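Anyone else keep sequences and structure tokens together like this?

Example one:
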Amino acid sequence: MAITLRAALVSLLLFGLFVGVWHLATAGSGPAVRMDPEYAKLVGAAASQGKSAMPGPGEVASPRSMRSRAARCRTRCAASAWKPARPCS
């Protein structure tokens, strides 16, 4: 087997392992737990619902997520005094 093919396979394996661990780390932890309202404000609304505050790989790759990122970029570009090197799209 050529060294480049082995390197590509190892890279794909490591990437898959990384995405799998990321998915498991951000998966829902079960039913919502009751917590102090002040602590819920501190950690965010998602934590009080049994979800992770960090998005999982499926949420990051979703088209809806990409549209919202593009909207934030357009809002930042329109609100800022400087003009970016490339236009926001």
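And example two:
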Amino acid sequence: MVEGSILFNGARVAEGAIVRYSIIGSGAAVEANCVIRGLSVLGAGSVVEEDNVLDCGARINSGTRLPRGVMTF
């Protein structure tokens, strides 16, 4: 589900992921069971693997791969 967010070209949000009021850069990917909210920003080409929660303006640099379940708020 995507609500009130900006997704650049090639950004992907998997089924079961939630993106609210955030920015997803070009070619970035949000995998299943992730929650990205609260003005968080994913840089171009970054990947957020399953079971992560980003909130409160979290920033993920371009090209970064966030392993499964390492960030939860």
